[in-house]
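Lecture 7 notes: from sequence to structure.

We start with a single chain of 116 residues. Read the sequence below before looking at the structure.
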Amino acid sequence: MKSKVAIEWLKTDISRLWNTPMNNLHKEALEMAIKALENQCPSKWISVKDRLPKKREKVLCTLDDEFYDEGEIKILYLTNSYGGGVIWVDGYIGTENYDVCAWMPLPKPYVKEVEE
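Now the structure, written as tokens:
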């Protein structure tokens, strides 16, 4: 079973629970399981041929450039070029347009959990 399918099954189980103290504990356990599954679901690389991210949205990029090691990864974003197209940049002054073959959204930053 794939994680996304398991998450949907768990959400369905939560929606069926009655509001009782025992079911509230069960619901909390199911929500923790969903969160754990969501955090371990691997992100998928998106080919630049299929879709581009929004302009100025920082994303993780795989470079397809002879000057970099094969499969090198950088955090970049798209912006407008002077010619009207788009270019990949890292935000530093004087950087070039990188040759990107695939990208994915950045993961959410770490948040320390507070114990109750």
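The CA atoms of residues 34 and 81 lie 42 Å apart. Keep this in mind for problem set 3.
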